[in-house]
Input
Amino acid sequence: MIVHVETLGEYPTTVRHVQLRDDRSGKVIFELLTESGTPQIHNFRLSIGENSAHVAEPENGSYRVVEPSGKNTFSLQRGVHYRLRIWGNGSASSDTDLKF
Output
């Protein structure tokens, strides 16, 4: 699955916080926070099985991996409902449900 991030107009796609959680248990599976600068991403790939915790490679700035804490990968399973939440510069987030 490709997560595509787009801002209307000619504005940069600033993404300051990304969070993926298991919708049933509420457990956070993957989470990124801005570490420095103004991270701008356009898309990243999520797949069944092991995924790199550094899946989002910003053009500018950098992210800090919050979850998985101390690990370089996280795992996604077929049939599990996930909720992806992404925050830009504002306080509101964009949410979507994912199921592989």
